[in-house]
Amino acid sequence: MHGKFPPSLLLISLLLLAPVSALAATGGAYADFSTTSLSSSGSPRFNGGTLGGYAEGNLKGSFDFLNLGGDVRFSIEHANQSGVSENYDTFMVGPEISFKTHITPLRPYAEFLFGVAHASASSSLFGITSSASQNNGAVDYIAGADVTLMPHLAWRLLELNYSKFNGISSTTVSTGLVLRLP
Asked: Is residue 168's pLDDT more than 80?
């Protein structure tokens, strides 16, 4: 059972990114495979994916190697352990800064995202099913790098994500593909 996020969160995130995308010189959409470990003891490793998009504009003058923008992402991750099915889903939005190296096809970036996380668990034993879930605010600190493969296609070489959710921290490692839009 995956969490249901309020539709108002999607609307708010789109409104926050509208000024960025209106001025953006570039943008893109990405799909990542991710694996997450939680700080709570006995917690399984969660595996799943992240879908998202970003828009950014280039700074001019002495800072033309910097891009400023925003990112919106949704992740769905799942784990099974000892007959317990667990889900950890997030919806996040926030600012991004990326760097053009001009020499290599590498595009390092950093993000600070905020949003909501939904955790749920269910188990069935002797025909009795029990479940629990919760929604809480979350914050993500992200650093990563994309490598250009072709003009509009990049490989998300590595993304490291540290999150805080209801007093629990998580560490996520991701890799995937980025479709860059002109």
From this structure: yes
